[in-house]
Amino acid sequence: MIANKNLLLMPGDGIGPEVMAQARRVLNWLQESGRASFTIDEELVGGAAIDVHGVPLTDAALAKAKSADALLFGSVGGPKWDKVPFEIRPEAGLLKLRAELQVFANLRPAKVFHALADASSLKPELVSGLDLMIVRECIGGIYFGQPRGIETLPNGEQRGINTEVYTTHEIQRVGRVAFELARKRQGRVCSVEKANVMEAGLLWRQVMTKLHAEEFPDVALSHMYADNCAMQLAKNPKQFDVIVTSNLFGDILSDLAAMLTGSLGLLPSATLGAKDENGRVPSLYEPIHGSAPDIAGTGKANPLAQVLSLAMMLRYSFDMSEEANAIEAAVERVLAKAGRTPDIAVPGRAVISTAEMGDALLAELPR
Ligand code: IPM
Ligand code: MG
After folding, report:
1. Which tens digits make up the pLDDT trace of 145-178?
2. What is the pTM of this model?
3. Are 1-102+282-367 and 114-262 in the same CATH fold?
4. Secondary-structure class of domain 1-102+282-367 per CATH
5. Which atom of ligand 1 is nearest to the CA of 247?
6. DSSP of 207-228, one letter per residue?
7. Fewest Cβ atoms nearer than 10 Å: which of 34, 135, 138, 155?
């Protein structure tokens, strides 16, 4: 068993608390079966924090996130906070966490579960067996670049500004993560940018090419423009192994890749930083789905992406592959036989609630 670890849970808004409640049951299973020992703390984030503290992330919550061994995040945002000032909108809490924790590499796997190949909007033969990984740069690019803002011009017109900016080392560090992952997978990296339009994309391509030649000649590297990548993902997604790309393109392409798998409700993500002097890797785990305010509180949310995010945490932060595999295998079995939450419902299968999905999963976990 691993030494006791400090976990911080941030359920957030919308369906976040409901799906996190099911992940907590899996944490309890890990503890009660003697597989792990956790000290678990919980903090508000996003709109939930705005309601109580007036800001989407308090300094105290940030300090806890920084000292935790890993952070399991739910989701933030919703129409309730549409009118709060832009600087303190719910999403700003998540962006601040990513930036402050310096978690620059966002790993977004898009894997088609065998039982769900027919839930994709693409033909089953195009997606069955699909297993690709998007590595999204997460604390740079246009999300954080300066200058930014809305200014008023002398003629009274307004102008909105954001800046795409990448430095050599920002590209190298996320590139290394992608190449290293590819070595453990099918050995192929596709680097995605718009080098035909943007200088930041041109530099991205140059840096990736050099990094490949100098450090990863054993991995196959290809380059693709982001618009073409979107098309290729819809046309023949199985051509990809690892895709590495900027913050904004990664945001968009990962939603597209996620939908190929049949449900956003199934996809986890891990966001990792660099190892510190104590060997600790700052890390944040979150489902790719958002807060889904339209179904919040109705028991319709699929908790599996949150549970699979927990499995990623076990694998990447705590080297607990055996337990991560056990959870993932239990998810496979549940999808193959249990009822389904509405997002993946099929005729002939019972439609079940968030908590019932939790029950089904717990029943599949080894004693
Ligand atoms: C995501 C989300 C976030 C992003 C939002 C909530 C700020 O869309 O994690 O993909 O754009 O990064
Ligand atoms: Mg997104």
Report:
1. 999 999 999 999 999 999 999 999 999 999 999 9
2. 0.93
3. yes
4. alpha beta
5. 12
6. HHHHHHHHH-TTSEEEEEEHHH
7. 155
